[in-house]
């Protein structure tokens, strides 16, 4: 008998072996994760460390539903087209139960719409765009990170309290910066009707012409400045602005600038007295955060960044959702996600049934320099719950299911 | 008024480092005719190296300036190494093939920098003794920027003396004008090329290193630097250093004025607008000389139609692909859809690049116009999906006809850069027109009609359209139109003399290529369900298409398909399995470059023919 003749027999044997394998309970739960690890490395390397830590903790505590959890992680190249292909690969080849991750807004939105089309649960961990839960919100997508709107709203009370009349604005020229600017102007105008916006600078992402921008802002003689710059643009703006005396006698607000990812590179040149959203890991002392901090340092011999917390909380959310659903069925998962409570290093958060946004907050405070490093001082935790529009407004924004 | 004066000074400071990087690129291109894609990576290495050197040497005046110079020297040495170890092996390859090698280098350098310096941005120290500001017209102006303003003209003068007053400089100028003649006169070209490459690289490194007090070292600097440098070189005129200086000034000033006068949104694209205007009005750049076509430009073997055996093989191949859904409905189909879409996209580029002899650095514009045409008709106008898809090629062809009308008036790298300029302008319009195109987020919900929703159905649609389109493109090449197109490439003068309207033929080809790229764009949109400016019309899409065509072989009919398949499959397979996937993808491309110096199909065909002749 040739090999060819034996083929059916071999197939039958393999099939029998497959069917005879011990109950599926022993097989790990496979989850898919995709992110732009190479395109946005400074945020996403800590993010990866965060979720790897959480995964190890979940598994050493016995996994979920008595099964070990496995995460199949992929690089989406920072590109929505590639991301959709990667998502398909995770679902079809790797047979993952659901997908999570993504960083840039356009990738997050593309994967969210893919999830809607394919009826797959998608946990968007980081994309900040408001649209992912509002204008383009869908049944299958839930978002963890506090959105652009929420983080902007967290800064507005301080901005309004200062009663500054002339404001200048600088933002990276893409959706995040545009949304932050729109939300800030709207909210501040509401709180302080006599406010004037005297200059607006939209800078190309990653390519700010800092000298010219600083000069143009100074020429407008504002009383205060609102910025949503981050990463390299932020560093250049700070250095150029302090050399040219732009910040002297002016109040400055900057979204995300308290994130260690963006503040640390400035070392002792970190700005002082700016109002920022961020993550003062060195100063938070809650039992939940202490535990996370100790575990993170032990595992990675490094200090956490904002990305670390997001990665960590993503896996905790995934595990909690499966536990509550008691199954990997998409509809059950989606039902479980609505109103799901998760204990994160920042405290307990809830995924709102209304718009699938988590109530994860951010730390709001002012920057300072301590021991040659930028830190946040006089900070407080801003709970996301308080910085969302009213339910009626959200319903207007979000398409009905 | 004084604020405008300050903005002009800001422009001058930016122009200096811009000039240094561009001068290096211009020198390298002038002598070696290599479009050095890795030039931005060299700039990035310069700033990272300066960061490390200064940290080692200490933040003293000696440590700072010593570190800057050391960084430039190290990058120069790295440039020499690249030239000797890599580029020497591919000088004999077809035009532009070296671009592939330098593209692979950019991937490897980026991952090297990530591995060596880490992911976090590194903000270097301020220059010792120059960290303050001086009052100019009542506004504080950084001292270091004043030094930068002086460095630009100083380097220009030094380079001018080097090129005008030394024997080496004379040889470089001679080689820029006619390198074959220089070789014929007994000059050892090898070392001349190595020297020029090292000098160019050192200038790139210096340009990066000098930025260290002004911006953090980060991993996205390479792309930012390369596109700026290209624009400056082309606006100034390829190979002209004073031109590069002038162009750097113009662009630095225009950008600063945009910011100063309240048109900051324009900075996204203003350099490309300047470039487009300059190229349309003055095709050889501000101070460039009219283009001397290289002697070996027409050294291309004529295309031959497939024989019966090849035709049968092609039909069997398509039939086999059509049967694939019987074997699997899984990920293989997803990957195959991507490959077909990109194969069609690459084939449309190859149509103007190979037979047409027109290089496009901005072909993604037409992919994007097709994708957005289809997406907008579906979402905004409520057209059915089939009609929207059918309109995709028309939208793209219209755009290609408009842009092409200007482009075909140029040739060589100038033409390529004008296509890039138009692509960037189109990109920035889509990127900023929030209300209509969805801005930087793009459009979501662009899914196929119900009957095409299943994966096998969409796969078959893509296969049918891609195969049909490629067949049409080939058919066109062996029609009188195709012969005229190839004649126009091989000798525009003779083609004109026998009554061919060269520009009209090329213009038509441009529009046709745009139409097929648009069809690929429509398919792309519906296969992904969403489109965004970056994923459809970004620079990297254009580069991907070039890479695919070059990988396969420029002057081959099967090249685009093989190149698209190889590139897409490699990227998918490597990215899935390795953290440092970019470096590995770069290494794989380098291996192909070295072992298949005429592209995969081109080299195989050559070997096959040689054996045929021998046997």
Tally the helices of chain B: what do you get?
A: 27
Kindly state the mean pLDDT of chain B as a whole number? 90
Oligomer: heterodimer
What's the count of strands of chain B?
4
N- to C-terminal distance of chain B:
80 Å
Neighbour order of strands in the largest sheet of chain A: 7-6-8-9-10-13-14
Percentage of residues in strands of chain A: 15-25%
Largest sheet of chain B, if any? 2 strands, antiparallel
Radius of gyration of chain B, in Å, reads 25 Å
Count of extended strands of chain A = 14
Using only C-alpha atoms, the radius of gyration of chain A works out to 23 Å
Specify the overall morphology of chain A: globular
Strand order across the largest sheet of chain B: 1-2
Distance between the termini of chain A: 61 Å
* SSE series of chain A: HEHEHEHEEHEHEHEHEHEHHHEEEEH
Task: Explain what the structure shows.
The complex is a heterodimer of chains A (401) and B (615). With 401 residues, chain A is an alpha/beta fold. Chain A has helices spanning 3-20, 41-60, 80-92, 105-118, 148-161, 175-191, 210-219, 231-243, 260-263, 287-300, 306-325, 330-337, 391-397; strands at 29-35, 69-75, 99-101, 122-124, 141-143, 166-172, 196-203, 224-227, 251-258, 275-278, 341-344, 347-350, 362-370, 373-382. In chain A, strands 7-6-8-9-10-13-14 form a 7-stranded mixed beta sheet, with helices on both faces. In chain A, a hairpin with a 2-residue loop joins strand 13 and strand 14. The radius of gyration of chain A is 23 Å and the shape is globular. Chain B has 615 residues and is mainly alpha-helical. The interface between A and B is large, with 67 and 72 residues.
């Amino acid at each position: 008998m040739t090999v060819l003749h034996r083929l059916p027999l071999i197939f039958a044997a393999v099939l029998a072996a497959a069917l005879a394998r011990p109950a599926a309970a022993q097989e790990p739960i496979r989850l898919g994760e995709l992110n732009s690890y190479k395109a946005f490395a400074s945020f996403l390397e800590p993010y990866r460390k965060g979720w790897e830590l959480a995964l190890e903790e979940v598994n050493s505590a016995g996994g979920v539903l008595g099964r070990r959890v496995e995460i199949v992680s992929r690089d989406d190249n920072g590109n929505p087209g590639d991301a959709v292909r990667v998502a398909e690969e995770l679902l079809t080849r790797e047979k993952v139960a659901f997908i999570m991750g993504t960083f840039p807004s356009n990738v997050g939105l593309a994967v969210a719409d893919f999830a809607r089309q394919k009826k797959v649960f998608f946990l968007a961990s980081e994309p900040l765009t408001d649209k992912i839960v509002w204008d383009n919100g869908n049944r299958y997508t839930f978002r963890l990170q506090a959105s652009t709107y929420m983080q902007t709203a967290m800064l507005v009370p301080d901005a309004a309290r200062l009663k500054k009349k002339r404001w200048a604005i600088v933002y990276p020229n893409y959706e995040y910066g545009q949304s932050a600017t729109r939300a800030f102007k709207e909210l501040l105008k509401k709180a302080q009707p006599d406010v004037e916006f005297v200059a607006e600078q939209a800078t190309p992402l990653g390519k700010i012409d800092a000298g010219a921008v600083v000069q143009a802002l100074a020429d407008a003689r504002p009383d205060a400045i609102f910025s949503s710059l981050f990463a390299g643009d932020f560093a250049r703006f700070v250095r150029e602005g302090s050399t040219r005396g732009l910040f002297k006698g002016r109040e400055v607000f900057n979204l995300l600038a308290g994130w260690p990812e963006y503040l640390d590179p400035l070392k002792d040149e970190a700005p002082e007295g700016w109002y920022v959203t961020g993550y003062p890991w060195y100063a938070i002392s809650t039992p939940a955060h202490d535990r996370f901090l100790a575990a993170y340092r032990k595992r990675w011999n490094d200090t956490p960044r904002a990305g670390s917390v997001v990665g960590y909380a993503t896996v905790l959310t995934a595990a909690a959702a499966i536990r509550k659903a008691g199954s990997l069925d998409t509809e059950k998962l989606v039902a479980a996600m609505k109103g799901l409570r998760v204990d994160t290093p920042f405290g307990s958060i809830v995924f709102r049934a209304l718009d699938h946004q988590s109530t994860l907050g951010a730390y709001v405070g002012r920057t300072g320099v301590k021991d040659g490093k930028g830190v946040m001082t006089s900070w407080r935790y801003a709970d996301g719950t308080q910085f969302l529009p009213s339910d009626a407004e959200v319903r207007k924004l979000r398409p009905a299911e | 008024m004084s604020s405008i004066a300050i903005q002009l000074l800001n422009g001058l400071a930016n122009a200096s480092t811009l000039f240094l990087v561009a001068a290096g690129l211009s020198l390298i291109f002038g002598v070696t005719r290599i479009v050095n894609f890795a030039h931005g990576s060299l700039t990035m290495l310069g700033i990272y190296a300066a960061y490390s050197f200064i940290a080692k040497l200490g933040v003293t005046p000696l440590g700072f300036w010593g570190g800057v110079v050391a960084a430039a020297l190290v990058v120069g040495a790295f440039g020499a190494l690249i030239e000797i170890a890599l580029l020497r092996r591919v000088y004999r390859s077809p035009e532009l093939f070296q671009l592939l090698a330098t593209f692979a280098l950019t991937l490897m350098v980026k991952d090297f920098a990530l591995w060596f310096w880490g992911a976090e941005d590194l903000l270097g120290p301020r220059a010792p003794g120059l960290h303050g500001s001086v009052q100019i017209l009542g506004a504080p102006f950084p001292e270091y920027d004043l030094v930068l303003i002086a460095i630009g003209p100083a380097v220009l003068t030094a380079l001018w003396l080097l090129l005008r007053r030394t024997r080496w400089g004379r040889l470089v100028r001679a080689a820029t004008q006619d390198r074959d003649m220089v070789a014929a006169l007994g000059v050892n070209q090898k070392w001349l090329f190595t020297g020029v490459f090292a000098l160019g690289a050192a200038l790139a490194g210096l340009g990066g290193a000098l930025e260290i007090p002004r911006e953090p070292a980060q991993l996205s600097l390479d792309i930012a630097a390369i596109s700026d440098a290209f624009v400056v070189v082309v606006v100034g005129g390829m190979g002209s250093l004073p031109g590069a200086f002038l162009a750097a000034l113009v662009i630095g000033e225009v950008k600063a004025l945009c910011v100063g006068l309240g048109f900051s949104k324009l900075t996204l694209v203003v350099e490309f607008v300047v470039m487009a205007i300059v190229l349309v009005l003055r095709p050889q750049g501000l101070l460039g000389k009219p283009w001397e076509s290289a002697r070996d430009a027409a050294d291309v073997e004529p295309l031959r139609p497939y024989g019966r055996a090849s035709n049968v093989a092609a039909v069997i191949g398509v039939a086999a692909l059509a049967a694939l859904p019987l074997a699997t409905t899984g990920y293989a189909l997803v990957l195959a859809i991507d490959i077909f879409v990109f194969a069609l996209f690459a084939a449309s580029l190859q149509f103007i690049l190979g037979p047409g002899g027109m290089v496009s650095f901005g072909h993604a514009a037409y992919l994007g116009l097709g994708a957005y045409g289809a997406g907008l008709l579906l979402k905004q106008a409520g057209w059915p999906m089939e009609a929207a898809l059918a309109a995709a090629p028309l939208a793209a062809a219209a755009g290609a006809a408009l842009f092409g009308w200007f482009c075909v008036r140029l040739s060589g790298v100038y033409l390529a850069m004008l296509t890039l300029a138009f692509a960037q302008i189109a990109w920035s319009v889509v990127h900023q027109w929030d209300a209509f195109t969805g801005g930087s987020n793009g459009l979501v919900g662009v899914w196929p009609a119900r009957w095409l929703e299943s994966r096998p159905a969409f796969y078959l649609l893509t296969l049918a359209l891609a195969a049909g389109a490629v067949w049409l493109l080939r058919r066109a090449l062996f029609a009188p139109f195709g012969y005229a197109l190839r004649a126009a490439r091989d000798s525009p003068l003779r083609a004109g003399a026998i009554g061919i309207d060269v520009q009209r033929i090329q213009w038509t080809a441009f529009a046709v290529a745009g139409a097929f790229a648009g069809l690929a764009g429509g398919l792309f949109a519906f296969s992904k369900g969403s489109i965004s400016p970056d994923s459809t019309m970004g620079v990297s899409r254009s580069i991907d298409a070039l890479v695919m065509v070059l990988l396969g072989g420029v002057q081959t009919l099967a090249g685009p398909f093989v190149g698209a398949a190889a590139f897409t499959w490699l990227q998918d397979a490597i990215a899935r399995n390795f953290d440092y996937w970019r470096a590995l993808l770069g290494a794989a491309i380098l291996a192909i470059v070295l072992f298949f110096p005429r592209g995969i199909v081109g080299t195989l065909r050559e070997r096959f023919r040689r054996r045929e002749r021998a046997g």
